Amino acid sequence: MDDAIAVTLYDYYRSSASYRVRIALNLKGLDAGKNYEQHPISLIDNEQNSSHYTKVNPNGLVPSVKTEHGILSQSLAIIEYLDETYPDIPLLPNDPWQKAQCRSFALLIACDIHPLNNLRVLNYLNSDLGVNQNEKMVWYFHWLERGFQALEAMLSRSPSFEQTFCFGNHATLADICLIPQIYNAKRFDFDMTKYPNLSLVDQHCQQIDAFKHAHPNQQ
Q1: Contact 144/190 with Cβ under 8 angstroms?
Q2: Which helix (H) or strand (E) holds 1?
Q3: Alpha-carbon distance 24 to 173, whole Å?
Q4: What is the Cα–Cα distance from 102 to 109, expressed in whole angstroms?
Q5: With a cut of 70, which residues of the chain have pLDDT below it?
Q6: Reduced to 3 states, what is the DSSP secondary structure of residue 156?
Q7: What pLDDT score does 97 carry?
Q8: What is the phi/psi pair of residue 8, to 5°?
Q9: Which pLDDT value is given to residue 17?
Q10: Which of 9, 70, 79, 166 is 20 to 30 Å from the Cα of 61, by its Cα?
């Protein structure tokens, strides 16, 4: 991907996976309308399952990016592609151990928390399994609590945690994954007071333009 080549980002403003990619693009200094084109896919209107979009991503999920190389899906794969394409502003620590910890933290969110509370899972609980709204929120909060407890513990025992970013002194893949997950939790009035370290990272990152401009309310 470079500035002279047309790139399309297929996303949805409230999708936490899309939110991650927008943060990464901003951290890399890439601007919507200049370096890439945004093509919104409405999850509420089921556009992700339309024949138009499943030709882009057969799995019917956002985000996806279309580049001169082809189409790439999965937010972490897209972010690592951006990181390798624009290496001057790294999104992973240089130290091998910190890099592995950072990936572990991000994958806990992307693989353990997010999939269980994803819109299609919540809709399936309602429509196919007959779960009512209260029961659905019990499910949602259960997996948030399990995941956030583990993330909080990871930061508490990390010698590199300085109450600003998750790992080191600049934003990494860990922060990129954490902030959208906290946004989703707050949308449903999840109690974040039990997770002071996660909250400190959230408060700090919310003051940074790359995170602010990627926020769903700014889309």
Answers
A1: yes
A2: none
A3: 8
A4: 11
A5: 1-6
A6: helix
A7: 92
A8: -115, 130
A9: 98
A10: 166
Q: What is the pLDDT of residue 162?
A: 86
Residues 6+ apart with CB under 8 A from 45: none
Contacts of 219 (CB under 8 A, 6+ apart): 13, 22, 40
Strand bridging mode 8-11 / 64-67: antiparallel
- CB-based burial, 120-135: b 16+ in 10 Å, e otherwise: eebeebeeeeebeeee
Q: Would the pTM count as exceeding 0.90?
A: yes
Domains assigned to the chain: 7-85 (3.40.30.10), 96-218 (1.20.1050.10)
Among residues 50, 62, 51, the alpha carbon closest in space to that of 9 is found at: 62
- The encoded tokens of residue 120 equal 């299609």
The answer for residues whose C-beta is within 8 angstroms of residue 133's C-beta and 6 or more apart is 126
CA 100 – CA 104 distance, rounded (Å):
6
Q: How far apart are the first and last CA of the chain?
A: 23
> 6, 194 in Cβ contact below 8 A?
no
Residues 15 and 63: beta-carbon distance below 8 Å: yes
